[in-house]
Specification:
This protein is mainly beta. The chain has one domain (3-156). Helix content is 4%, strand content 35%. The protein contains one helix and ten strands; from the N terminus they run H-E-E-E-E-E-E-E-E-E-E. It has a four-stranded antiparallel beta sheet with strand order 1-7-8-10, with no helix packed on it. The chain is rod-shaped and about 80 Å long.
């Protein structure tokens, strides 16, 4: 293939960045203040069952019935950071090509796609026992962006 068609089709480059991470850890806390009376921060409740669910949804990310408030003046038995929020995934792609202008000059065309699959990345669920948002994912993660596409021309010399 030669001529304009060859110039348009050959010589493209790509960059791909795919990131995947497990969810961020979090701890369930009591909503009714410090029941333990030790004054070192929020209390953790008692865990009385398994937190696992066979079918997690944003409306119920973990088994909320597995937690109850501990008795006054006692510490709860829930482990710190034992629960994990939803995984975070992202695919970024760029496609580019250099078009020669003169001996040491070229024009680069770039198309860049951020969050190409438009994958929503959700925040951790509500983790405060007794609140209406307990176990519910109601927002996206900080910094989770919708798909963005940008085009650019760059003069290289």
């Amino acid at each position: 293939m030669t001529g304009f068609a060859a110039q348009a089709i050959k010589g493209w480059g790509t960059n791909v960045i795919y990131s995947w991470s497990s969810g961020f850890p979090f701890t369930v806390l009591n909503s009714n203040g410090a029941l333990s009376n030790i004054n070192i921060g929020s209390d953790r409740p008692n865990q009385i069952g398994s937190v696992s669910l066979s079918n997690r949804t944003n409306a119920e990310w973990f088994n909320t019935a597995a937690f109850v408030a501990q008795a006054p003046n006692t510490l709860g038995n829930e482990r710190r950071n034992q629960l994990f929020g939803p995984p975070q995934r992202n695919l970024n792609l760029s496609v580019f090509k250099n078009f020669p202008v003169r001996e040491a000059m070229s024009l680069q065309f770039r198309a860049e796609f951020f969050n190409l699959l438009n994958q929503p990345n959700f925040a951790n669920p509500g983790a405060t026992l007794g609140q209406s948002s307990f176990g519910v994912i109601s927002s996206t993660a900080t910094g989770a962006d919708m798909r963005e596409i940008q085009f650019a021309l760059k003069f290289l010399f």
